Structures
1.
Amino acid sequence: MQKRPILICDWDCTLAEPTSRDFYNLHRIATKKAISTQFQLNDNQVEELYSVLSAEGIRIEKLFSSANLVSRFNLTSNGPSRFDILKDALESIDPSEWFKPDAELVQELRLLKSHMRIIVLSNSPIGIIRNIGEIIGFDMDKDFDTYYTMTSETGAPKFVNPAAAFDRINADHKPDIAQSWSIGDSPKIDLDPALALGMNTAFVDNLDRHDSAEPYAFKAHTVPTLQRIRHSLIR
């Protein structure tokens, strides 16, 4: 049986670009609220944690997946699940005012799907992904072959272990690696793990920030938007 290539798509800021990045302030507010609930902290304590971790280049969401960070800050978890509270908080966000239909993007993705399996790999939970996708105009049951997203059991796949997330996709789909691609706006978690498997990669530069991908120029395409890379992906 001939192997089919796959296209692994990051969701936030790759397929789903809000009208303003201020949308992600809602993510931060929801995440801080979840941390307050999960670890029984007041607002000031959460803000102090956020400041310390931000200064070290660590996303505060790592508290839900890193036992070392929990131990370092002497935190006590409220309840057996590390991710239920965070997932519920993020899925409570209303994206309706922050996204708009994008018929061109939907059409480009559907053209790609005739050549490759389309997979969403995201740190967001499926509920908010579906809500945003429907606003953009995707048929969320037909336009994508499968989703690897935040769950209550495993958390955010690319925050917990990006390489393991890509390894799982590779094992599940057994694609034609040489013809497969990963696209996203974060070289560290969207491109590096794919490159390690021998896949092609594309840095989706929705903010025209070429310097962010400069170290990857020799091994990854830098492209302005998904709409403009279809011909690069289909060879």
2.
Amino acid sequence: MGKACLWYNNVMRLVLFCFAFIILAAPQAQAQNYGVNKPQRINTNLAPLIIPHRQHWGEQRSQYINMDLDDPVPPNIPAVVFKDPVPPKILEDRIDALFYGVNSYIAPEFDVFGYAVRGYMDDVLTPSRMNSPQEALDEYKNIRRARIVFDHWQKDLTAQIKSLEAEIEERGAPPRMIGKLTYNKGIIEAFMADMDAWLAANQAMAEFYISKSGQFEIVYPVYYFLNNADQQEFASLYEARILALTQMQTHSLFAKMIY
């Protein structure tokens, strides 16, 4: 089962990457021919990019340039009042608790780190809002807040793992318990690397939107740019973001994230 899941995840990453590359690299019509999705704020003759979110996949390219699409729908993550979780006392339960908020469900009010990160990132950098420099800046701040939460989460997980390793060594736990901690530690380390890359990819895109304000316009799903260098930079950032998101979605409690 583990090998099958790994194969599936690798295939999905390849499919998403290829789709992004095709959409971004395919020949484009001239901007003035773009139906209802013409730019209103900038005047450019540079052929735009058509980048529908995967919620809107399945249409012909000619349809995308004439469709008035709404932004992708983010997951529903209502605000909660966080409470201190009661830490488990049994060693095996403590090893399992490493997955809380990652791949194991815990009530939102006790999911102090994971739920908070998902709350900051649920609709981050929504396309139509990025035409506004202020909204782009606000989203950048949300990404930074998510980063701060993640930094605390990473320290907490690292401390838990070290504590568990020390306790197992001191108590001489059975091989089954040692193997379980080793496995869980590997999953957690992969998760931390994936989240680091995901937050970094979103931050890089937010910084692009802020620094290039007035030099692009998004009429979702069509992206217009004043110059080719900016368009190419954006395409590269977008592809990196897709790959980071796809990897992040392999962790079950982050599977519904859309950006």
